[in-house]
Design brief:
Elements: E1 37-38, E2 67-68, E3 73-74, E4 78-82, E5 86-87, H1 89-95, E6 106-117, E7 124-125, H2 126-129, E8 130-136, E9 141-142, E10 158-159, E11 164-174, E12 179-185, E13 191-194
Parallel strand pairs: 1-3, 2-13
Antiparallel strand pairs: 3-4, 4-6, 5-6, 6-11, 7-10, 8-9, 8-12, 12-13
Protein name: DUF4352 domain-containing protein
Organism: Oerskovia douganii
Region (Disordered): 34-66
Length: 202
């Protein structure tokens, strides 16, 4: 997994403290044709900062009921939009000679990530707060990277309030990527996202 997130949980601002001011109509996500959805409650804390919005774990976003991958997901400090993943084995191998081929039966897949930060800090990184991994239909998780990645999210550096970052995350996944992509933002509940689920028109 990327640095900064181990799995389930957010340190810092509580879910009820600040309401996110970024919506699907913002400049960063002007092309997103889906209702933004909160990533979910901090464990053991009630979520009420976003009214009647769908919340991960309560209204989908789970392994058995994933959300559409191209829908915006947000917390009180981040608004995140994933673009469609694509197979990128040849691209990764051509990018840098230090990169090695994936294991037999595996492929490198790139997921472009757009992220806007609306929290109070001036020294955060998108790759430190946003984590992404893959889970196949049997529930096996894959979080190995691909080596040196072109336009990597890791290389976007420090940002502050109302700044945005865009970059690629690359994972080694089973050939064909038949499964779900899992997005975690800080320590909020991870959300399961599928390219097979239709987005909800805003």
């Amino acid at each position: 997994m990327l640095a900064g997130v181990a799995g389930l949980v957010v340190g810092g601002v509580g879910a009820t403290a600040v309401t996110l001011a970024v919506v699907a109509g913002s400049e960063l996500f002007a092309d997103a044709a889906a209702e933004p959805r909160p990533a979910g409650p901090v464990p053991d804390e009630a979520w009420d900062g976003h009214g009647d919005d769908q919340v991960a774990g309560e209204d989908g976003g789970t392994f058995d009921d994933p959300w559409a991958l191209e829908g915006e997901v947000y917390t009180d400090e981040w608004s995140v939009l994933l673009e469609l993943p694509h197979e990128a084995t040849a691209e990764i191998l051509a990018h840098n000679d230090v990169n090695v081929a994936p294991a037999e039966g595996m492929e490198y897949w790139i997921v472009p990530v757009d992220a806007m930060y609306v929290g109070p800090s001036s020294t955060v990184t998108a790759h430190g707060s946003i984590d992404l991994w893959f889970v196949d239909r049997d529930g096996t998780e894959y979080d190995e990277g691909c080596g040196d990645v072109p336009d990597s999210l890791v290389g976007t550096g420090l940002i502050g309030t109302d700044d945005s970052a865009r970059g690629n995350v690359c994972l080694e996944v089973p050939a064909g990527a038949d499964g779900l992509w899992v997005l975690a933002v800080d320590d909020y509940m991870p959300v399961h996202l599928s390219t097979d689920v239709a987005i909800t028109e805003s």
